[in-house]
Amino acid sequence: MLAESRDVLVAPDRVAGAHVISLRGLHDVILMDDGMQNPFISKTFSIGIFDGSVGIGNGFLIPAGPLRVSLASGVQQMDIALINGDDETNIAAKLPASLTQLSANLLPDPSTIDALSGTPVLAFAGIGQPKRFFATLRKAGCNLVHYLAFADHHPYSETDLVRLQEDAMRLGAQLVTTQKDWVRLPAEWRERIVVLPVALALDDDGALVTHVESAINAHQNS
């Protein structure tokens, strides 16, 4: 999905991948997902993201729990903690007072929501927290008549999609999915399924920009 609008390099060895980007000399910044899991690359700035509805969950690492690194290890690496959605588990109180905390929410594309107005919706998603997607649809006022959650990064088969279409036809509903799921669909299925773009809206985006720019400037001047 990111490759549609940004330069993306995929490398099984992230150190080697970062080295390739550096040698090409075309980019000033490397943005890496799940970077705290990799101890072999020195990071200029690290953002820890928490799902407000889950927090640290049971405190265990994936797959036993929701964490990618332990909380103790993570907070030592974080420059900022970002809580996505309402802080239902009071994760803010579990973080060090010295750690900068920001809040954000996922906002659905209003034109897509308007187009779905009055239409029964069958939603499906194969992402880390599919219930957040379904909750977003409900909160936006969509008539969610049914939903199906698949495993994260689920590779949709023809059988999956035919079943979804049959369920939608039975319910008189429009199939709707996430951007991450939509790009994994076969091309011939994409026009039949509505994709709901979302944007991350920070309560104070200026603070994030200031922190990141300060870190980059300090790195360049070191």
Explain this structure to me?
The chain is 32% helix and 20% strand. The protein folds into two domains: 32-106 and 201-220, no CATH class; 110-196, 3-Layer(aba) Sandwich (Rossmann fold), CATH 3.40.50. The model has no long low-confidence stretch (mean pLDDT 93). The chain is an alpha/beta fold and 222 residues long. It has helices at 14-24, 71-77, 110-115, 130-139, 158-171, 179-182, 187-190, 205-220; strands at residues 47-51, 80-84, 100-108, 120-125, 143-149, 174-178, 194-196, 198-202. The radius of gyration is 20 Å and the shape is globular. Helix 4 links the parallel strand 4 and strand 5. It has eight helices and eight strands; from the N terminus they run αβαββαβαβαβααββα. The strands form two sheets. The protein has a four-stranded mixed beta sheet with strand order 1-2-3-8.
Brief overview:
With 222 residues, the chain is of the alpha/beta class.
Structure characteristics:
about 220 residues; 2 domains; four-stranded parallel β-sheet; 8 helices; about 30% helix
Q: Extract low-pLDDT stretches.
A: none
Give the strand order, joined by hyphens, for the main sheet: 1-2-3-8
The count of domains is 2
Q: Sum up the overall morphology in one term.
A: globular
Order of SSEs: HEHEEHEHEHEHHEEH
